[in-house]
User: Which sequence fits this backbone?
């Protein structure tokens, strides 16, 4: 039990557990695994009266559809993992980032908000994120997912290099 | 909406696994992108192979879901925006140390800054809705 609920899982176990979701979701729910489309539900929940065409397109006819439920479930899953493994209830830490830079709360908030903005916009332009493109899309052998994933990784590596050299001082 | 419970349980499982494997930990993202520890890259590679094998099995069994309906794969378009979006997403992934899935696990874990990554993603999605208003191709 400690192996599953307290220790960090090995990569192969996590890979199997996430990989099987692709065929299982198609078989039981006839749905493609994917998270980022569901962020549009939250835009609509915040501004329900918006007349923007895209917010009223097909996936968002019902803002409390399966994507909303799926996202809530993922938050609950993180909560259960934190409780079973003894993480603190609340933390303002972000690992190496906050340990190295020791910024105050406001710049930290702006940094992570900016990162999120790029993720949100980028995922919609690319039509998917790590789960929809890199896991589901590659598992279903899609060319667009290969292109998206290659650019995710190249720009992730370049940006991390920049952070390491210019923000962390080469640490 | 049918299957509400199925989606909730799948979400709980997915969030739990992302958190238990370290995918929701800033450090593992940073280590993957700087080549120090490729655990998450190996995890993703394993997931892709396992998913692909599972999809082949489904296809061999007739490509039908549990209710006997044809399984329709969600096909994603490939165009200039796949590249532009991919670039923006890659930068955002490294800046926040999270992706749209793992940030949800972070929120559940009680990581306050993860909540701001999430709000940024909602804002970024809104920016896309604004762009789509002026560009009928989006």
Assistant:
């Amino acid at each position: 039990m400690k192996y599953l609920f307290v220790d960090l899982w090995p990569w192969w176990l996590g890979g199997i557990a996430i990989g099987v979701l692709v065929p299982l979701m198609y078989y039981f729910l006839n749905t493609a695994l994917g998270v980022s489309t569901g962020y549009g539900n939250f835009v609509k929940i915040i501004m329900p009266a918006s007349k923007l065409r895209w917010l009223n397109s097909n996936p968002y006819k019902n803002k409390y559809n399966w994507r909303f439920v799926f996202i809530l479930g993922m938050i609950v899953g993180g909560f259960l993992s934190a409780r079973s493994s003894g993480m603190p209830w609340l933390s303002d830490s972000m690992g190496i980032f906050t340990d190295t830079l020791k910024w105050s709360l406001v710049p930290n908030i702006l940094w992570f908000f900016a990162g999120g903005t790029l993720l949100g916009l980028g995922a919609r332009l690319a039509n998917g994120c790590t789960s929809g493109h890199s896991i589901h899309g590659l598992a279903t052998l899609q060319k667009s997912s290969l292109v998206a994933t290659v650019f995710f990784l190249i720009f992730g590596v370049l940006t991390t290099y920049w952070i390491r050299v210019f923000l962390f001082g080469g640490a | 909406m049918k299957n509400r419970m199925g989606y909730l349980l799948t979400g709980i499982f997915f969030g739990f696994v992302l958190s238990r494997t370290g995918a929701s930990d800033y450090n593992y993202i940073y280590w993957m992108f700087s080549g120090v520890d490729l655990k998450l890259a190996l995890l993703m590679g394993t997931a892709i192979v396992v998913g692909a094998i599972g999809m082949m099995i489904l296809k061999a069994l007739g490509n039908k879901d549990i209710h006997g309906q044809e399984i329709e794969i969600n096909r994603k378009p490939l165009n200039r925006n796949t590249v532009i979006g991919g670039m923006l997403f890659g930068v955002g992934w490294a800046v926040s140390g999270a992706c749209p899935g793992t940030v949800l696990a972070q929120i559940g874990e009680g990581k306050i800054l993860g909540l701001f990554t999430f709000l940024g993603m909602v804002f970024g999605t809104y920016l896309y809705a604004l762009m789509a208003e002026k560009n009928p191709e989006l």
